[in-house]
Amino acid sequence: MTAEAEEEEGVKGKRSCLPIVVGVLAALVVGSAGCGSDSGVADSGNGSIGACSRTGGGSGDLIAFSIGLERDIFAMNANGGEVRRLTSSDKLEYGGDWSPDGRRLAFVRRQKTQGKYIGTIFVMNADGSGERQLTSNHDYGSPEWSPDGQRIVLTGTRDGDSEIFVMDADGGNVTQLTSGGDDRQPTWSADCRRIAFVRSGIVGLSGSLGEIFVMDADGGNVTQLTSGSVRSEDPKWSPDGQRIVFESMRDRPIPTEIIVMDADGGNVRQLTNNRVLDLSPVWSPDGKQIAFSRDRSGNGDWLIYVMDADGSNVKSTGQAGSPMSWGG
């Protein structure tokens, strides 16, 4: 699926329900950095990645988010207070992810290059200053920092399909990890050894719009974790590496709910149970809470909520929008 096709599909599907323009695209190809092999898949011999330690240092109290049809990225305290605008360009910006030390935010800016609109990865300081462009010439999306802050995993389009790539935190050494599927929305395990992601559009998924898979950080040992859903998306690995939270529509016309499972796909537990849409879950840095977006009226009245990691103690922040990342 091309970046343009995926954007259109996202508008028709989940994101059409959500006037929050976030995470709609998985796009890309790399510029001058090049990929790991002729097949476009990382060589396991050279690409094998060892364990890492999480880099700390931030307050962990900031949620990056988007608001409806606003084109910019915002941040607020976890209780919904002290909202501030981080970007203010005339271009669409989305897909923000805090660096592990809370000092920077990686994000996507949709801009016109060589006659077409592409997603370009930028990094800025936590206060919105010091923007630095990491990619150029090709279409990228869904950046997420590795827990040690050394690498960024992301999605990109090559030969018509969305695939998973990884690059150094400065934008160098771009390496393609997957090939032949329609892969998007990658998320790191806490030890940097594995990456969970969404795959759709392949034989054997029985018409599913997406299921969650996991692979080694070098692209090997791809394993399917979920099955039987209409759509499972937006996986986020817990800070302790034990669980994965995601949104899922288990059966039409049941609304999308927030689900959590063990990292091996077992012990699946539904955290929300409403006749409205719950989307875009993100973990708090300590793994004790989850922020998400809820259409409380069913008419696009989206607010950011926070709940305990077991689904209890659900509270509205009072802030309209959709969370991208909790850190800072």
Discrete helix count: 3
Instruction: Please mark out the parts with pLDDT under 50 across 5 or more consecutive residues, or reply none.
Output: 1-49
Examine the secondary-structure arrangement and name the CATH architecture: 6 Propeller
CATH superfamily membership, which one? TolB, C-terminal domain
Compute the number of strand runs. Answer: 24
- CATH level 3 topology: Neuraminidase
Order of helices and strands: HHHEEEEEEEEEEEEEEEEEEEEEEEE
Mean pLDDT: 82
What is shown here, in short?
By secondary structure, the chain is mainly beta.
Can you describe this structure?
The chain is mainly beta and 328 residues long. It has one domain (3-40, 53-327): Neuraminidase (6 Propeller), CATH 2.120.10.30. Helix content is 5%, strand content 43%. It has helices at residues 3-12, 14-17, 44-47, and strands spanning 62-66, 74-77, 84-85, 92-98, 104-113, 116-125, 132-133, 140-145, 151-158, 161-168, 175-176, 182-188, 194-200, 211-216, 223-224, 231-237, 243-249, 257-262, 269-270, 278-283, 289-295, 302-308, 315-320, 322-327. The strands form six sheets. Strands 3-2-1-24 form a four-stranded antiparallel beta sheet, with no helix packed on it. A four-stranded antiparallel beta sheet has the order 4-5-6-7, with no helix packed on it. A four-stranded antiparallel beta sheet has the order 8-9-10-11, with no helix packed on it. A hairpin with a 6-residue loop joins strand 2 (74-77) and strand 3 (84-85). The two termini are 33 Å apart. Mean pLDDT is 82; it is low at 1-49.
